[in-house]
Write a structure and sequence with these properties.
Blueprint: H1 13-37, H2 49-64, H3 71-85, H4 91-105, H5 107-110, H6 115-141, H7 148-173
Protein name: Rod shape-determining protein MreD
Pfam families: MreD (PF04093)
Keywords: Cell membrane, Cell shape, Membrane, Transmembrane, Transmembrane helix
């Protein structure tokens, strides 16, 4: 019976590139998605999709593979989201970092839980994140902004997460599966 390193395939250049690309997949898809959603397609409430997509990606990858989405990348994606959405620079970077921190803190309970529990947790985190963004922008403008965008963003987050999670789960099991490299 063969044991130990003899069972492993040799690390060729192509295998190393495959492994690296699988590790980079979550961050690449987050940045690419933000850029694509930032393009002017003329969809109603398209601007509300950007933070929902960013929150869903950060939540999902922080929950199931936190090493693939490093903190500096999350901060840079938050700055990109600020630049695309014309929000105060650094606002979404802080919010996404707080979301990542909260998700990693709750990871032991959420990762093995049923989908309905993880969906509910994401919805709660998304409502808090949207509320924080609204409160910070209201504070910066020294007046209460309308709460309607926060409600829409929360509804988008709750409604779109199952679809986004389905796509992310498929990617997690195929294109981003490091163990298949």
């Amino acid at each position: 019976m063969v044991q130990g390193p003899a069972l492993r395939r040799p690390l060729t250049l192509w295998r190393r590139l495959d492994t690296a690309s699988r590790w980079a997949f979550p961050g690449f898809m987050l940045v690419l998605g933000l850029i694509v959603i930032g393009m002017p397609f003329g969809l109603p409430n398209q601007a509300a999709l950007r933070p929902v997509y960013a929150m869903a990606c950060v939540y999902f990858w922080s929950l199931y593979r936190p090493a693939s989405l490093p903190t500096p990348l999350v901060a840079l994606c938050g700055v990109l989201l600020d630049l695309l959405g014309l929000s105060p620079l650094g606002l979404w970077a802080v919010i996404l970092l707080l979301l990542q921190l909260a998700t990693i803190a709750a990871r032991r309970r959420l990762a093995p839980a049923r989908f309905i529990v993880t969906w509910g947790a994401f919805t709660g985190f998304a409502i808090i994140a949207a509320g924080l963004a609204w409160a910070a922008q209201s504070l910066l403008e020294l007046r209460l902004l309308p709460a309607t965008p926060v409600l829409w963003e929360s509804l988008f987050a709750a409604g779109l997460y199952p679809l986004l999670a389905r796509l992310l789960i498929r990617a997690h099991r195929t294109a981003a599966a490091v163990e298949l490299a």
